[in-house]
TrEMBL record:
Gene3D superfamilies linked to this entry: Homeodomain-like, Jelly Rolls
The keyword Signal appears for this protein: no
Domain HTH araC/xylS-type: 177-275
PROSITE patterns: HTH_ARAC_FAMILY_1, HTH_ARAC_FAMILY_2
Entry protein name: AraC-like DNA-binding protein
Listed GO MF terms: DNA-binding transcription factor activity; sequence-specific DNA binding
Key words, A-Z: Activator, DNA-binding, Transcription, Transcription regulation
InterPro entries hit by this protein: AraC-bd, AraC_XylS_family_regulators, Homeodomain-like_sf, HTH-like, HTH_AraC, HTH_AraC-typ_CS, RmlC-like_jellyroll
Coiled coil: none
SUPFAM superfamilies: Homeodomain-like, Regulatory protein AraC
């Protein structure tokens, strides 16, 4: 006979503005029935700790075999069917909602990736899911609900992006990190994505997807961010002129570097340097 614990919560006003808000969490031991063509208004995350079964997201992703230790996401508005294929299974589940889900999807998490996967950090997923169920059972204060929201972000990170089977993700991650190392090895050298792809013996599209899987950005998008991070360090820690810093991080055109920096950081390089100098001066008083 199945044994279940379920806690349903209505988050306080304002918690959804944090991006994610937990609306339920629980466990089912010896689950012996299949949920057929259910549709939810928010997201669900399910960790199966024992037993095997099947997951079907109707009209999306097809059918997936679920093994012990696997995790799957159920997006809102998508009819789904899941449950043990023979005997029973044990599961821990969470329900949540919030505007942050769309951002995670765009980065390849939640419904933006593979529906069922082996988590990137299995131990952290088990611990975080247990903590969510425990805290949901006694959530009464705003602080509890904020902690539950933070736990959802931690859970999504621990599950990881779902861009394919674990072996494929591992290979893509290795390629992505090798590409990043090559991109950042010499910032003053012009970057040619096609040439880098040939050096790594992969197609241009494969290279771009591998870098996106690690960084969430295209190679050029990541390189721009990396260059700006290096420029910030030099602006803060050296007396080099802005033009010299621009050249060292790969911008031959001082004016173009200033435009990019201002657009991305929200202030000009000289203003950033002055702000850091003022902040450090205040700390020294």
């Amino acid at each position: 006979m199945a044994e279940s614990v379920a806690h349903y919560r209505t988050p306080p006003e304002g918690v959804r503005a944090l991006g994610l808000a937990l609306t339920g969490a629980g466990t089912i031991r010896a689950q012996n029935r299949t949920l057929v063509r259910r549709t939810l208004t928010g997201y669900a995350g399910v960790l199966v700790t024992s037993g095997t079964g099947l997951l079907t997201l109707h009209d999306r992703h097809g059918r997936h075999r679920i093994e012990p230790g696997m995790f799957f996401w159920v997006p809102p508005g998508v009819p789904h069917t899941y449950g043990p294929s023979a005997g029973t299974w044990d599961e821990t589940w969470v329900l949540f909602e919030g505007p942050g889900t769309s951002g995670y999807e765009e980065l390849g998490y939640l419904g933006g990736g593979t529906a069922a996967l082996v988590p990137s950090d299995p131990a952290a997923v088990v611990t975080t899911m247990a903590a969510q169920v425990d805290r949901a059972g006694r959530a009464a204060s705003l602080q509890d609900h904020v902690a539950l929201a933070a736990g959802l972000h931690a859970l999504i990170h621990a599950v990881g992006p779902g861009r394919g089977p674990a072996t494929d993700r591992s290979a893509a991650s290795s390629l992505g990190r090798r590409a990043i190392a090559a991109l950042t090895a010499d910032l003053e050298r012009p970057v040619r994505i096609g040439r880098l792809a040939r050096q790594l013996a992969v197609s241009r599209d494969t290279l771009i997807e591998a870098v996106r899987g690690v960084t969430g950005e295209t190679p050029i998008g990541y390189l721009t961010r990396y260059r700006l991070d290096r420029a910030k360090v030099m602006l803060a820690d050296t007396d080099l002129p802005v033009g010299g810093i621009a050249r060292r991080v790969g911008y031959a055109d001082h004016a173009y570097f200033t435009r990019v920096f201002t657009q991305r950081v929200g202030m000009a390089p000289t203003a950033f340097r002055e702000q850091v100098s003022r902040d450090r001066g205040d700390l020294d008083r």
